[in-house]
Write a structure and sequence with these properties.
This protein has about 350 residues and is α/β, with parallel strands linked by helices. The chain contains 14 helices and 9 strands. β8, α12 and β9 form a beta-alpha-beta unit.
Length: about 350
């Protein structure tokens, strides 16, 4: 294992914005978001909405994707994450539109805000400031103004604790989902213990081993059910932290056509690694699918890393996987010799669009 991952000093030389600090503060983000949103109040008619649409891009829609998959059995309303300038045609006065932009300046979300207002939708906002916060205050929309003191990197994707639990608290106060204070405290305790095993001080950290396995490989993430959102978070953070090429698939769909894509090109076998996420909380047939899928992928000559979620609840499993993935993506960036924080290609693209 490269010694650089065992040294906080050497990591810090590359990690100038302290992404690792944001990774290790995930449980603090969760608890802080829960506390910050305790006094939020929503109009009573927000509990009577017929559907939920989230407008957010990149790191600002990660929380919604996690919630949609995690609470798929509990949510009694259709929930769609819609990353675009406009909203779906069915949005009307009976829709809840959640506008999510960490910066508050995302042009797609600001455009969607205008449309949501014109349609008379019920609107709520999660942001750390910017124009979106100003619009929310002018229109008296319910607003969670994130004070992300436990995200030293200041990157939206690394504020996943604020994003998820800010939204969870909002939905709970509207009566759309159930989550208790004990659920939050148990999760925080679980993650705090997990971090000790994943950090730089442990030379045999599972996150380090996975980062080393993923080095110079195209990573393909395969998950199911409640872990799909968590896998997407990892996918996003591999892209932005490690600047690494990835793909994302879901079971059981993966088994119905992608298995036939494992023969060619031959060179892919040396440059691709599969990460399969399994859980005893999956449907029993899906658990069987994971193991057979692993067997077939390995038969085709690809490396497979099976990651087993072990926590007792779906909520804890989701964040167990997110916490692991955050460490892996940060460590992988360090192995590549780069600062995980800057996103120069995305910034260049936005600058060109602004001209």
């Amino acid at each position: 294992m490269p010694s650089i991952l065992n040294s906080r000093i050497k990591i810090k030389e590359l990690d100038k914005s302290n992404v690792l600090g944001s990774v290790e503060l995930l449980p603090d983000q969760i608890q802080d978001a829960w506390e910050q949103t305790k006094n939020l109040v929503f109009p009573s008619d927000y509990a009577n909405v017929k559907n939920i649409v989230v407008s957010g891009m990149g790191g600002s829609n990660l929380g919604s994707l996690v919630i949609k998959r995690l609470f798929k059995d509990e949510l009694q309303l259709p929930m769609e994450v819609y990353p675009h300038y406009h909203l779906p045609g069915y949005v009307n006065a009976d829709s809840l539109v959640l506008l999510s932009s960490y910066s508050g300046t995302t042009e797609e979300t600001l455009a969607a805000a205008e449309q949501a207002k014109s349609l008379g939708a019920k609107i709520t906002v999660i942001t750390s400031g910017g124009k979106l916060a100003e619009i929310a205050k002018i229109n008296h929309w319910p607003l969670y103004l994130i004070n992300a003191k436990f995200n030293p990197s200041r990157q939206p994707r690394m504020a996943i604790g604020y994003e998820v639990f800010g939204q969870l608290s909002m939905f709970a106060k509207m009566g759309l989902i159930n989550i208790s204070e004990n659920d939050v405290l148990n999760l925080v305790d679980h993650l705090s213990q997990l971090i000790q095993n994943l950090g730089p001080e442990n030379p045999n950290s599972p996150a380090k081993l996975l980062a080393y396995a993923a080095y110079d490989k195209h990573a393909i993430f395969v998950a199911a059910e409640h872990l799909i959102g968590a896998a997407h978070v990892i996918n996003n953070q591999f892209n932005e932290n490690a600047k690494s090429l990835t793909s994302e698939w879901h079971l059981p769909e993966f088994n119905h056509h992608y298995l036939e894509a494992l023969s060619f090109p031959h060179l892919a076998k040396d440059t691709t690694i599969f990460f399969l996420f399994n859980s005893l909380l999956y449907h029993e047939r899906v658990q069987k699918r994971v193991l057979i899928t692993k067997e077939l992928i390995e038969q085709k000559g690809f490396e497979v890393q099976l990651i087993q979620a072990t926590a007792p609840t779906r909520l804890e499993q989701v964040f167990e996987i997110i916490q692991l993935g955050e460490f892996v993506s940060c460590y992988l960036a360090i192995l590549y010799g780069i600062d995980p924080s800057p996103i120069p290609s995305v910034d260049y693209f936005k600058a060109q669009m602004a001209k």
